[in-house]
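Milestone M4 deliverable, item 7.
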Amino acid sequence: MNDLIDGIHHTGDILVRGRSVYDPHLEVISLRKRMGMVFQKSNPFPKSIYENVIYSLRVAGQNNRTVLDETVERSLRGAALWDEVKDRLQESALGLSGGQMQRLCIARAIANRPEILLMDEPCSALDPVATGKIEELIRQLRKEFTIVIVTHNMQQAARIFGLHRLFLSRQAD
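Output delivered:
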């Protein structure tokens, strides 16, 4: 995401399917198409719930109504939001609660079936109930996607990824 910013440098490497994301010959657009991104603060577009979910498909030129409808339902179900919004798909996404908006952003991120889902502090702006829903959702999504999550909350990481034993053994050392 920072390839066009002057003065940025990094150490280490990130490999996707054995290839460095920093390889100067890697086509960045194709890499980005294989990733979904969920930001710290929910960022629904000022569009309907339906249009938010299928945004990436529309950009790619998909106009088949059956494909779009199936993608909306699959993605909203995948984000544990379908039952709450199925009768309001044409309403503005900006009318959702904070937790619902974050789950909508997750639905949008998984709509094009990315290989990798990047999540930057996905629960930081949420209340405990919404946080619990997002954590459970991430536990379910990790069955289908490679998930990279940034969090300062080590207990949250342990809950999501089942790292309780690791943290317990480190505390004992």
